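User: Can you help me understand a structure? I only have the sequence.
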Amino acid sequence: LVSICAILLYNFAYAQDDSPFVRFPALSPDGKQIAFSYQGDIWKMPTSGGKAQRLTIHEAYEGRPKWSPDGKQIAFSSDRFGNNDIFVIPAEGGISRRLTFHSSNDYLSDWTQDNRLLFSTTRNVRQVEWESEIHAVNALGGTPKRLLDAAGVMSSASPNGKLIAFVIGYNKEQRYAYTGSCDKEIWIFNSES
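Assistant: Let's start by predicting it. Here is the structure, written out as tokens:
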């Protein structure tokens, strides 16, 4: 039994070393491409397989890509200026355009149907619980605005834009059995009511 466990553990460790470390996969609206972060840059490739195309080449860390609803642009978070800001790049590659300029970190969560980028930040109120606030900025630029009074992260809008799901809580994922006051919970905000 011990030798079987050792063989399985070795095979698991070998499989982990053999695969690339890809983070934050995002499927394009038509389902034909996937964008992702690899070694601190944004890449895309066909979902059917093939060669990956590097979209950003920068010494900063870039992650959390999100496709625009029309599939023509990809937004992402990058720490090019010392903290994470939100950027947009054409899906075919090109020049990145910066959308947020605050000294707080801005972590991209979603791209809505009405062309807003949802992100988590601590720019207005630093909560006692260290929770972030959910803000939105127009994908064409402009001043970001706080979207909800509730603190939370990982916001995601419904296709019709009426509902926004987000997470409240900040316990570590490793504490899966934790049920205390800091437990992560999914909440739904109805923009109409």
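Now, to help you interpret it: Helices lie at 2-18. Residues 1-19 have pLDDT under 50 and may be disordered. Let me know which part you'd like to focus on.
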